[in-house]
Amino acid sequence: MAADVTAGFDDSVLPFAVPDLDVRGRVVRLGASIDTVLARHDYPEPVSRVLGEAAALTVLLGTALKFEGRFQLQTKSDGAIPMMVVDFTAPDNFRAVAHIDEAKLVEAVALDKLSTGDLLGEGHLAMTIDQGSATTRYQGIVPLTRQSLEEAAHQYFRQSEQIPTRVRLAVGTVTTGGRPHWRAGGILVQFMPHSPERLRAADIHPGDVPEGHEILAGNDPDGVSDDAWMEARSLVETVEDHELLDPTLASERLLYRLFHERGARVFEPVVVHEACRCSRERVLSMLRGFSPEDRRAMIADDGKLGVTCEFCSRRYSFEPSEVEQGVTSGL
Fold first, then answer.
1. Which of 44, 105, 293, 310 is the most buried (most CB within 10 A)?
2. What is the DSSP string of 113-139?
């Protein structure tokens, strides 16, 4: 890779491979797209940071889909952020929303417990792959036990995909034009050797050893002790937040810093967009699915049924007759 690559790859995912280390991966840089999502909702700063991490992780994983479909990350927990949902629609659209427990957030701020794990608390994280009505959805679930989203992703790959994986995520702001703009970034690397033998876990623990002797396991948390994987994992773990957020540091340049001694191949980037899936037709169909009593209860003082999309805040308004007409006609 050339070392003089210029910036300009915001809101994109760059796939790469390092053949010498038998790893592949992707780098995501989110600029205007994540700033639009977070500015629209005007979340408190700690909540914006956590949702930005979730969005970066979802885009990293969603852009790996090789078919038309959806990838969704959803958390449900007992913390100040009791729920987050990030939807990725292949090949390039995402949307995101978070729910807030105001009382718990005030308490977390007062106690200065604002890490991602603290704000999510305990619960679970679900990752769902949906290829459409013709196929069965796949869902992997991992427990949330006040760990980071990075570690939750590592757990997901250990138990669901059984692929040694390392993820680094970062979220922050850069001030331009007189106001701070949100940015998010991430890098994912996976060990994909040609020989399955290299994915075998190390030997079992040797048991008791004489006093004063150390067991030199040297194993990756995934249980794989392959030298190539341990080198790749170690390199990715050196990535700092500012390197993932710097708008003047292109993804190619970052990969050059990490893997120039081994040589990395980069592939065609995927440009991603913030886009909601809601539409007047979808909302109308949803309303027609409610009971007549529920629909009557939704009628506002102006005599109309109003629905606001929680993802994009778009407001939809319907005449009751418009909704009922579709119900009676069987639409």
1. 105
2. --SHHHHH-EEEEEEEEE--TTS--EE
**Cα separation, 98 vs 75, whole angstroms:** 9
Angle between helices 45-62 and 149-156 (to 10 degrees): 30
Residue 77: both structure tokens together: 């927990």
How far apart are the C-alpha atoms of 34 and 27, rounded to whole Å?
15
Instruction: Spell out a b/e string for 47-69, using b for 16 or more CB atoms within 10 Å of the CB, else e.
Output: bbbbbbbbbbbbbbbbbbbeeeb
**C-beta of residue 129 within 8 angstroms of C-beta of residue 88:** no
Contacts of residue 247, defined as CB under 8 A and 6 or more positions apart, other chains included, come to 7, 10, 31, 174, 183
Query: Bridge partners of 171?
Result: 184
Q: Quick one: which of 159, 95, 93, 148 has its CA closest to 121?
A: 148
Residues of the chain with pLDDT under 50: 1-7, 201-219, 329-331
- CB-based burial label for 120 (10 Å; 0-12, 13-18, 19+): buried
